[in-house]
Q: What sequence folds into this?
């Protein structure tokens, strides 16, 4: 990493913590948070705008690209942000290395598994026959 | 302090309960009318509504305190008065936005 005089204070220290890593995790958490600000607001606005929330209306909404694509992004980025956030909590409170690794691995599997399940359900809606 | 802990609690709630409800909802949509009816029945029960209103509040609280943390990441708003004002504003704002959302949601109907 080149650190010139023009580097910002953040750029100068990024990746140089005592653990020599974590800068990327920190930044990812913030970038995904901005994406979820938009996607979460989109979800709530959509639920308010949809005329009804019955099965037919919701299926048609998620069958169209305008519904399916933001929902896919919400699932992927939402599970990623949840995993990143929970890791911070685990790292703060669970210091014993084996327990820390076990819990973080468990959360990783849960997040990837849950995200895959949600994406699979969405794919069935999006690529299935509408209504 | 309190708002910082609220950020963790709401984040944890959204991660576990929020994503579980979202995933269940998507599975129920693919599961056909019976599966969707079960989901609707549970979620419109008193307990289900408490969960949904709670998730709505958790979302807005986490969003607003998240924006506050992003601002503080830049080094801004560390003065005691300003800091406290913004902290209180996240709580007032999240309650207001939750009430507003459900006001319109009830109007839309199920």
A:
């Amino acid at each position: 990493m080149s650190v010139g005089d023009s580097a910002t204070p953040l750029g100068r220290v990024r990746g140089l913590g005592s653990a020599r890593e974590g800068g990327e995790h920190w930044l990812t958490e913030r970038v995904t948070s901005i994406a979820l600000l938009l996607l979460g607001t989109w979800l709530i606005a959509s639920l308010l705008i949809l005329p009804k929330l019955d099965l037919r209306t919701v299926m048609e909404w998620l069958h169209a690209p305008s519904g399916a694509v933001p929902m896919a992004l919400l699932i992927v980025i939402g599970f990623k942000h949840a995993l990143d956030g929970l890791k911070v909590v685990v790292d703060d409170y669970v210091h014993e290395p084996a327990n820390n690794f076990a819990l973080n691995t468990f959360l990783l599997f849960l997040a990837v598994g849950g995200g895959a399940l949600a994406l699979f359900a969405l794919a069935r809606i999006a690529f299935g026959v509408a209504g | 302090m309190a708002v910082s802990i609220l950020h963790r609690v709401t984040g944890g709630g959204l991660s576990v309960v929020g994503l579980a409800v979202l995933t269940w909802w998507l599975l129920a949509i693919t599961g056909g009318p019976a599966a969707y009816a079960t989901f609707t029945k549970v979620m419109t029960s008193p307990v289900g509504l408490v969960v949904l209103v709670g998730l709505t509040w958790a979302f807005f609280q986490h969003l607003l305190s998240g924006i506050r943390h992003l601002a503080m990441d830049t080094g801004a708003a560390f003065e005691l008065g300003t800091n406290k004002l913004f902290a209180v504003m996240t709580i007032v704002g999240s309650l207001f936005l939750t009430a507003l959302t459900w006001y319109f949601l009830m109007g839309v109907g199920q």
